[in-house]
Amino acid sequence: MTRRRKIVFWLFVLGGLHGIVLCAGFFAPYDPVEQDRINPYLPPMHLHIVDAEKHLHLRPFVYASRLRPGTFDQYVEDIRQTRPLKFFVAGAPYRLFGFLPARLHLFGDGKERIYLLGTDAFGRDQLSRLLFGGQISLFSGLLGAGFTLSIGWCIGAAAGYYGGWRDDMLMRLVELFLALPWLYLLFAVRAFLPLTVNPLKAFFLIIAVIAAVGWARPARLVRGIVLSAKERDFVRAARGFGASSFYILRRHILPETSSVLLTQAAILIPQYVLAEMTLSFLGLGVPEPVPSWGNLLSNLQQYSVLVSYWWMYLPALVMAPFFLGYLGLASALQESSDAYKIEKRSLGSLA
Amino acid sequence: MRKRPGTVAHCRILFRLFIIFFALICQPTFTKAQQNNPKEESRLLSGEIGRSGGRLVVSLRGEPKTLNPVIAADARSREIIGVMQADLVHINRANQLTEPALAQSWKISPDGLAYTLVLRNGLKFSDGRPMDTDDVLFSFRVYLDENTHAPQRDLLIVGGKPIAVRKIDAQTVVFQMAKPYGAGERLFDGMAILPRHLLEKPFQEGKLGQIGSLSSAADQWAGLGPFRLKEYVAGQRLVLERNPYYWKLDSEGNHLPYLDELVFLFVPNADAQVLKFQSGETDMISQLGAENFSVLSRQQNGFTVTDAGPGLEYNFLFFNLNDLGEKASPDFERKQKWFRDVKFRQAVSSVADREAIVRLVYQGRGAAIWGLVTPGNKRWGDANLAHPERSLERARALLKEAGFSWTTGPNGESTLQDSGGKPVEFSILTSSTNADRAKMAALLQDDLKQLGMRVQVVPLEFRSLLDRVTQAKEYDACLMGIASYDADPNSDINVWLSSGGTHLWNPSQPHPATAWEAEIDGLIEEQMSARTFEQRKKLYDRAQEILAEYQPMIFLASPDILAGAKNSLGNFHPAVLEPYVLWNVERLYLKSGRENATR
Prior knowledge:
The complex is a heterodimer.
Chain A: H1 2-22, H2 24-27, E1 48-50, E2 56-67, E3 75-84, E4 86-96, E5 100-108, H3 126-162, H4 164-179, H5 182-192, H6 199-214, H7 216-229, H8 233-240, H9 245-281, H10 293-298, H11 303-308, H12 314-336, H13 338-350
Antiparallel strand pairs in A: 1-2, 2-3, 4-5
Chain B: H1 8-24, H2 27-35, E1 44-45, E2 55-60, H3 75-84, E3 89-91, E4 98-100, E5 103-108, E6 114-119, H4 133-144, E7 157-158, E8 161-162, E9 164-167, E10 172-176, H5 196-204, E11 227-233, E12 237-242, E13 249-250, E14 261-266, H6 270-278, E15 284-285, H7 290-298, E16 303-310, E17 313-319, H8 330-340, H9 342-351, H10 354-361, E18 366-368, H11 392-401, E19 405-408, E20 414-417, E21 425-431, H12 435-449, E22 454-460, H13 462-472, E23 477-483, H14 493-496, H15 515-529, H16 533-550, E24 553-566, E25 569-570, E26 589-590, H17 594-597
Parallel strand pairs in B: 1-13, 2-14, 21-22, 21-23
Antiparallel strand pairs in B: 3-4, 5-6, 6-10, 7-8, 9-10, 11-12, 12-14, 15-24, 16-24, 17-23, 17-24, 18-24, 19-20, 25-26
């Protein structure tokens, strides 16, 4: 029961986090590519309830920021000018879930801009970029893991079930892919592509590349389980009754792999999010100005940004709850998995 | 162009006297006598009197490839060569004028074709061997030899013919040009005089290119500059020591350079250089980016950072105007139709937010530019060049005139389309290693979006970018920067002339493709042979105005030259010309001995 509760808990956490990112347009106050050229590297504005004269405000507010004269990136709070936070305001148009046109934002302030997480070098709202960037990063992780697992599952099952020369051949292929230096491979792939790749193509390219090199490990795991499962009594019995290979695979063997696949998924998704971030960090991912977490972090390649603007680290922090969620889910899944025990038992008898 | 007063012979006698005196008499009384002698002012340098001794550590962005000026093409090699070699006439980096160096004086014949240079007396190479006109003759023979492929060769071909060099006596040499050449003496800057006694044999054997590698022993190479090679540790550092035979003296008659040693650490990236400077490992830093400059200026602790003002680097956008002939795809031909339209280019220029570029990219430490001559160039800027404000309306009007129109897309955004109804989309190449230019491109991308142009920025490794632009010519537009090495217009000659290799939008044309390019060619060539500064300036101004009108290059901004040094370093005066901080290396000195003890 507690195991089940754990899984539900982590699923709930992850669902919430993904929901926020999915509805980035609503939660983000501004268009992520809109530049506000008079406010570069503005630090996060502080939310206040009590103002300078010790008056309590029911509606949280921020003070306007002014550039300190003669500086480029030093701001002071202007305590004469308050900007109250308004909720459910109309703002920049966006498309909810990618197709529903909408204008409603969780918060904002009609005219004056509010930067709760500061701005970047071009005065773009860091909070909006973070949320929209999550769409690219998380969904490339999810899709990449989906593709990887389907390829790995098919190849692993085929190798394990049919055995013999097919198994040998496929497993050598797996080893080859495991040995590939994938990062350099990506550089090479990118070099052969046309010069200009639009953001959508770049996004799918990343997913394709991640999936193409990542399927080997899950394929191996699935093969191991299929190997042990196909020798079990009820499978032999089914075969004795004249069941077809396809039927046995579908009815008896593949269900055994489901919990391994789920656990793998929970491990692979954050890994692939990280892969997208690495690629974008190195400038191989989605092109600017489209945000992704890797793009946001690539600002940190500059020493001056590293030491001057702490809020540029936020994308790295935001990853933490997501990764924690996925890893928590992975361990909960593993604990509750029956197949895990079967696998252990069979491995024990093999030894 | 400027003649030194006094006759050559008079000069020589005084010079010899000076050498004899110098050997015999104690220095203080001697310098007083010398200070009254105007002929020797160039040898005796102004500036603070320094303390001899100590070592200066600076970082170099990677290993130099060679110490041989004949084959050096990379900036790092040239920086090292600059402190190891000397030229006949030198451009003073502070006032951008020429001054005597190895040649104590020069005279130009009335027809402007012959330059007579008189060498200083008693010059010696860093290995102690004397230097005379034979070395000068040899050096120019090497530079002009086709088989050595010296980068200097192009500069020495004036009016289609190589400069002829003739020896008069051991001290006097005449350079004969086929055509008058404005500011001819500036040619000699950077033409290092080579040691004939070491290089003649390899030159005759055709092996000159193999000489001067860093790993070769210090005694295989000699120069006339303030420093000579002491030690080279591959991948780590290059140590130079004082050249005891160096010819410059300070105003008290002390031998220069002041420093005993000059150490170059190989630090490949700008941020690592900043860290090394911050931690005190290096004494000096140059070519600072604006962001790093502000990081350093916030925590000035034992060091000072200096803004030397706008330099000679100009950043600009240009479109591919090459005639690709059959190679061009129909898609690209359609794009080129826009690019070739002057109004299209003017519209792009009109919408570029130069002020934002200066503020956001250079943190205000730079200048917006509308022409190739930057504010850092003190004499050659055209005061009449228009500096139009950024105007979206003007850009729209220009595009409308050129037959473009706008449609509103499904998301409510307006898209620019050409007369054929095709949306205006193109890509801008930029160097992936230059963060400043990447930022500039991002700003430009957003500016152009306001005109309804869909622009993609493509960061590319610099070598392959250059390949695409100058060789394959497969690109739409490109954002690039060029730093002139001299304030004189002739240093940008290859950008101006349609036959030039860095006439980037359409390089190396056999015939000028457009009437205005032909006109610029004419003006620049005329300017080269004009005799007075006023004549040259008038012609050059006109060329600048044509360039501004036709906008083949859309000039954006020029960054300031930013540098920093420890407070203990004396005579540190960064200049806007290359080498920004080492130009007066012989006069740099350490104010106290402590710095030596720390290493």
